[in-house]
Amino acid sequence: MLKDLLEKRNCFKLVCGAGNEDAAEVEKLVALYAKAGCRLFDLSAKEEVLDAAKRGLAKAGVNDAYLCVSVGIKGDPHISKAQIDYEKCIGCGKCDEICPNNAIKYHKVKRLKCIGCGKCAKVCSKGAISYTSENIDLNVVLPPLIAKGIDCIELHAMGVDDEDIFSKWQTINQLYTGMLSICTSHGKISDAAMIKRIKKLLECRMPYTTIIQADGFPMSGGCDDYKTTLQAVATAEIVQNERLAAYLMLSGGTNSKTAELAHLCGIQFNGIAVGSYARKIVRSSIDRDDFWNNEYVFNQALEKACLLVKSVE
């Protein structure tokens, strides 16, 4: 059971990206990290992505892994997609260069690959890039995924729209009786408001049937240093101090230094979710056409993945 994995206090979760709808890439990521020892995977709430993840597990020969699908409220960066205003775009190529998921090529956005990280908009000197997100109907999206077999549903409870957050949480609880996860950050709200929101969300949950994913700085884990992961550890400390009857997972800027820094700061975490950094270190391999049949390419990426997964132990 997923609960058993969390109680070992060394769970590594690979975040494929809530907005990453590239099924071929997800299949490669899951196969690679499953082979490296990862047993929990976070996926976009799409049937084709879930199917791809299951194919990846089969290729890795792993049958004891768990799959979590993530959903968010409208405006959540994790499910937002970049769009380019070509009347403003001057074709400088800066957005192509900085995109960590290769979602922009020749100034065109590949929506399936865009994860809404915001990096392209920050480097655009002409303000030509903005973001859009759909307000999905969970009553339509989730039942097929639940029927196919999932082990957890995560709600990205970020932003200031409490009404939307609580409404979606109620719907998720009505649809699914298994483990749930609350991905939260104090970005646009105070620490006190974040804790108040978490406690209200937990009111309808039995003890230790929920994961609190403390997201320091969403989608910021491109670098492997202590400063990058500092906010994830700091956010986790805020949550830990409340002594909630829930599992604690760190995310947002996480990397190979996260577990070490968390231990030094006395954080009793159950797991660490790594997305941006985990994908970055194997990007050159999974983007190759010969990934599946070139043993050297696969093993080169596997070595890097193994080191990252072991860093949580």
Summarize the structure.
With 313 residues, the chain is of the alpha/beta class.
What labels describe this entry?
313 residues; alpha/beta; TIM Barrel; Alpha-Beta Plaits; 2 domains; eight-stranded parallel barrel; two-stranded antiparallel sheet; 13 helices; 41% helix
Largest sheet data: 8 strands, parallel, barrel
Mean pLDDT: 92
- The name of the CATH topology of the largest domain is TIM Barrel
What spatial order of strands do you see in the largest sheet?
1-2-3-8-9-10-11-12
> Which bin fits the share of residues in helices?
40-55%
Overall strand count: 12
Oligomer: single chain
Provide the low-confidence segments as ranges. none
Q: State the end-to-end distance.
A: 19 Å
User: In DSSP terms, counting alpha (H) and pi (I) runs of 4 or more, how many helices?
Assistant: 13
The succession of helices and strands, N to C, reads HEHEHEEHEEHEHEHEHEHEHEHHH
**CATH level-four homologous superfamily name of the largest domain:** Aldolase class I
Tally of domains: 2
For the record, the CATH class of the largest domain is: Alpha Beta
Helix vs. strand class? alpha/beta
Q: Given the C-alpha coordinates, what overall shape results?
A: globular
Rg, Cα atoms, Å: 18 Å
User: Which CATH architecture of the largest domain is right?
Assistant: Alpha-Beta Barrel
**Relative strand content:** 15-25%
